[in-house]
Amino acid sequence: MRVWTEEEVARFLEAARRSKHYPLFVLALSTHATILLRKGVQPKVVAERLGHASVKVTLDTYSHVLPDTQHEAVKAIESVLWTGIQGVGRNGR
């Protein structure tokens, strides 16, 4: 499969914007982004795939689909800290 050039993507997006089916195109992009983010794909990668100028645009738009982010962060740090505490022996190692 060949990767499209930036010019080809720009032409495609312009044609999509002029199409009467543009709302379906936007829905497909939104669905694509939501699925990727929910599957754990890094927001930077999703931003690049959507053509966003920055990851901030992506996060501002789609952060609501990542409600477990804080919970996952807490679990990750607890795991590291708990393992570290349990691993400490009498000599401090």
UniProtKB/TrEMBL annotation:
InterPro entries assigned to the protein according to its UniProt record, in alphabetical order: DNA_brk_join_enz (IPR011010), Integrase-like_cat_sf (IPR013762)
GO biological process, one term: DNA integration
Gene3D superfamilies in the record: Intergrase catalytic core (1.10.443.10)
Keywords: DNA recombination
Domain of life: Bacteria
Keyword rRNA processing in record: no
GO function term, MF aspect, one: DNA binding
Name this protein carries in UniProt: Phage integrase family protein
Protein's organism: Desulfofundulus australicus DSM 11792
